[in-house]
Write a structure and sequence with these properties.
Layout (H helix, E strand, L loop, with lengths): L1 H24 L19 H18 L14 H13 L10 H10 L4 H4 L12
Helix pairs in contact: 2-3, 2-4
Length: 129
């Protein structure tokens, strides 16, 4: 009986050691890197974040209960038009392309989803200072 207990413990020790070595050799998880720009034709999480930020700004600016965009994660003509509107409100180049400057303000405006959206929306440090 004692031999069986020792062999079970040795087996558990070996399995634990193998798991530890395997986790050391496994590639580290990489944080998502946002694209350099988001623009017409793009789809996905970043586009949803852009649409959400535009809607929030619109709701605040006009004291409305909903924004003008469907948050469907598809950057079409309507999203492009409203991104240009948003850029104009910030005095940015209104080209409908979300780059680091536009993305910076969108991340700031969306306090609730800002950490989530940082992985999907291009952004930099404060563009003025």
């Amino acid at each position: 009986m004692r031999v069986k207990t020792v062999s079970v413990r040795a087996g558990l020790l070996a399995a634990t050691a193998a798991l530890g070595v395997g986790s050391l050799l496994a590639p580290a998880a990489m944080a998502a890197t946002p694209p350099s720009t988001i623009s017409k034709g793009d789809t996905g999480h970043g586009v949803w974040c852009v649409q959400h930020a535009v809607n929030l700004y619109y709701e605040t600016y006009y004291n409305k209960k909903s924004g003008p965009l469907a948050e469907d994660a598809v950057f079409g003509t309507s999203t492009a038009d409203w991104v240009a509107w948003y850029q104009g409100k910030y005095g940015l180049h209104a080209d409908s392309v979300v780059g680091k400057n536009t993305g910076f303000w969108m991340i700031i405006d969306d306090g609730y989803y800002s950490n989530y959206c940082k992985a999907y929306v291009p952004h930099g440090s404060h563009p003025i200072g």
